[in-house]
Amino acid sequence: xxxxxxxxxxxxxxxxxxxxxxxxxxxxxxxxxxxxxxxxxxxxxxxxxxxxxxxxxxxxxxxxxxxxxxx
Length: 71
Prior knowledge:
- This protein is α+β, with helices and mostly antiparallel strands.
- The chain has one domain.
- Helices cover about 20% and strands about 15% of the residues.
- It has one helix and three strands.
- The longest helix is centred in the last third of the chain and has 14 residues.
């Protein structure tokens, strides 16, 4: 599964604010938009660009659980 990352911040309930990291191009601010959750075939994953801190990953997972009403 894949959560799209974007710099188009709309301030919606489905967004998780992301810290600026050197391996993400673009603006200083971005969000993970869990409303855009989608699947990606394994062969499309060419390389790992980077990794977020555990607190960011936990925030995204919590937002997905909220979205799917799992909590």
